[in-house]
Amino acid sequence: MKLLLVDLWPWWLGGIAIGILVPAMYYFLNTALGVSTGYGNILKILNRASKLKWLNTSTYKDPFGWRFIFIVGMIIGGFVSARISGMPLLESGMGLFTDRLNWNYGIYAFWFFSGGALLGFGARLAGGCTSGHSIHGIATGQKSSIIATICFLLAGTFTTFLIRIIVFGGN
After folding, report:
1. Rounded percentage of the chain residues whose pLDDT exceeds 90
2. CB 132: neighbour CB atoms within 10 A?
3. Euclidean distance between CA atoms 13 and 18, whole angstroms
4. I need a labelling partner for 19 at 20 to 30 A (CA). Which of 27, 34, 116, 138 fits?
């Protein structure tokens, strides 16, 4: 049991967990497990009087529903998992990114906040997040999800290439 809570899970075990969770969500709740809708719930909580059409649909009528709880659970679960595995309370390192760049925390915060905002915008533009399209959409045979997933992969590869050249100088 200790190894299950301390070591990183192998990729295939995460795949099995998602493979069980996805049909369970459909069977028990008749809904897809998606993260971007949960972020919409947080936006609705922060701005109840929003004029955005998509934020005023029935999906966000109860912003404190299961998707909000799911997002909060991911945050708390990540924190608890890190603490159980012996990680420090606060960690500023982001692997290769912070090893190679010597930016101050304000620039890092701006970089990651901007990336998160662009991710949210892209999820709204594509009608769902990568997990929603790639896991649920393809599994249910949605042509738009297949196209969206191909676009996600191509754009991610291209963006990584650009960042490697522009930010890291090609290294």
Report:
1. 12
2. 20
3. 9
4. 116
